[in-house]
Write a structure and sequence with these properties.
By secondary structure, this protein is of the alpha+beta class. 47% of the residues lie in helices and 18% in strands. The chain contains 16 helices and 20 strands. Strands 8, 9, 10, 11, 12, 13 and 14 form a seven-stranded mixed sheet that branches. It has a three-stranded mixed sheet with strand order 6-15-7, with helices on one face. The chain has a two-stranded antiparallel ribbon with strand order 1-20.
Length: 520
């Protein structure tokens, strides 16, 4: 049969087609992008996010903002997914990716208004993306990634974020020491750097612990508070009277029988302490519970014991100390035991924390984050996680490039130059891509108090020749144009590359949609 196709849809289905669908999707994506645009850069502003239950989050971290916002529009969700993908891959640059995706959509909308076909826009953007990635790779600094350079990378990622009364310089130094500690022949084992937050002191009390911190508490007050040269066991067993596998009743007809039953239980509970003591164990971490009487016997034996240890913490402790994990105390062997220089209990307000330091394997380190309020601690946590991720990315995935918008200006210039060799209407899309990239340094200039147009013009002038390298440096009351490398403003090349690729993917996906069928 000829004629128009027939769609059979439910009565409550809403359908939007053609230019209306494209406009709706693009507008939604742009709105999400604009929501985080003012947070970009060292002078970016914070957002206060309040949930329907009253929980408050104050941050300028793009991934946190977008994941916390209650976004329902499917096209807008794609921008959120861009930020999430950026966070998962390289740990930073989420705001950059979201802002770029929004500007690519804005330029695509202009091209659609000029009757450029969506497929042409997609092809042009893809070609421009390849040029941009090649340009980014060409900007990688030849300098060796020594500790000084890595500290600049860490500090750049934290500048403008809430760090309380501790300087980003001090935090950057701790971050680099943490990453270097877990760096091996095959790269950085990022999972071996843990972050533990503890409210109740100024953020300047934040410290790097060479070991693992656990929330688990000692099970008995008479246990030692600190053990040096500790032999450690990690056990996945409940310390209690074993239960029978069948239901049974016992009739106790005399005091002697009751006493005998209780003595049998005591012997069984004492066996845990005897087995561990006989194996030379000083400290035991159990992922299950420890009954009070068993805890008392462990205390009598001078053993420091912790119960209900989180599984992730148990894995970290085993990794740091070289211990195995055993399911039965009675079967414990020398090969199951680990060692640590010190295991101690430290008190923070009403909370006790277990510190396992200087393990035999010595593979894990922990950043202990302090802060006077939950908001300060949470924001410092996000800042340090980003810093750890970018230093790891710099070491593992190709080095660093100039920050402060210098890389984006160079990329935009390169794409604009290459557009002259692109045939047909795709050239318009390639040029639009270059204009979209300009939004990043323009926004940086605006957020530092500069006139965005003047700032962009000055940046272009500063990057005209091959030796030129100019960015927006946040100095004094207003930003100024300067050399980001001399100012120590550096970003991992992986962050820039991922932002361009993920933003382009999201923008082209949204631009191609011309029919939205939604069930109500």
């Amino acid at each position: 049969m000829g004629g128009r196709p027939m769609f059979v849809l439910a009565e409550d289905t809403e359908r939007t087609q053609g230019r209306d669908a494209q406009s709706s999707n693009i507008s939604a994506g742009k709105a999400v992008s604009e929501a985080v645009r003012t947070t970009l850069g060292p002078r970016g502003m914070d957002k206060m996010l309040v949930t329907d239950t009253g929980d408050v989050t104050i941050t300028n971290d793009g991934a946190t903002i977008l994941s916390t916002m209650d976004i329902e529009h499917p096209a807008a969700q794609m921008i959120v997914e861009v930020a999430e993908a950026q966070e998962d891959e390289v740990g930073d640059g989420t705001t950059t990716a979201a802002v770029l995706a929004g500007e690519l959509l804005s330029k695509a909308e202009d091209l659609l208004d000029d009757d450029v076909h969506p497929t042409t826009i997609v092809e042009g953007y893809a070609q421009a993306r390849d040029i941009a990635v090649e340009a980014i790779d060409g900007l990688v600094l030849d300098d060796e990634l020594d500790d000084d350079l890595l500290r600049d990378v860490a500090e750049s990622s934290m500048t403008g974020k809430g760090t309380g009364d501790v300087t980003t310089e001090k935090l950057a130094d701790a971050v680099v020491r943490a990453v270097r500690h877990v760096e091996g022949d095959e790269g950085v084992v990022r999972d071996n750097v843990r972050v533990h937050t503890q409210t109740g002191a100024s953020s300047s009390a934040t410290e790097l612990v060479e070991g693992v911190i656990s929330d688990a508490e000692a099970v008995h007050a008479n246990m030692p508070g600190e053990v040096e040269d500790a032999t450690i066991a990690v056990v996945d067993e409940k310390f209690g009277v074993r239960e029978t596998e069948i239901d049974a009743e016992y009739n106790v007809e005399s005091v002697d029988q009751l006493t005998a039953a209780m003595d049998a239980e005591d012997r069984e509970l004492r066996e845990y302490a005897d087995a561990l003591s006989g194996a030379g164990v000083d400290v035991v971490f159990s992922t299950d519970s420890i009954e009070d009487r068993a805890g008392a016997y462990l205390a009598d034996a001078g053993i420091l014991a912790f119960e209900n240890v989180d599984d992730d913490e148990a894995k970290a402790i085993a990794s740091a100390t070289g211990a195995g994990r055993t399911s039965k105390v009675a079967d414990i062997e020398d090969a199951d035991l680990g060692e640590a220089e010190t295991v101690r209990v430290r008190t923070f307000g009403d909370d006790d924390l277990a510190f396992v330091e200087g393990g035999a394997a010595a593979e894990a380190v922990t950043m202990l984050i302090r802060g006077g309020t939950d908001h300060v601690v949470d924001e410092l946590d996000r800042a340090l996680e980003d810093a750890l991720d970018v230093v790891t990315a710099a070491l593992d995935t190709g080095g660093v490039v100039p920050g402060a918008g210098a890389t984006e200006i160079a990329v935009a210039n390169r794409v604009r130059e290459e557009s002259a060799g692109v045939e047909g209407r795709r050239q318009l899309a390639v040029e639009a891509f270059a204009d979209a990239v300009d939004v990043l340094p323009r926004t940086l200039a605006e957020n530092t108090g500069m006139d965005p147009i003047d700032g962009l013009v000055d940046l272009r002038a500063g990057n005209e020749d091959e030796e030129g390298r100019a960015g927006i440096i946040a100095e004094g009351e207003h930003g100024e144009v300067g050399d980001p490398v001399e100012a120590g403003v550096l970003d991992p090349v992986a962050v820039k590359r991922e932002a361009v690729e993920s933003a382009t993917e999201a923008a082209t996906m949204i631009a191609r949609i011309d029919d939205v069928i939604a069930a109500e």
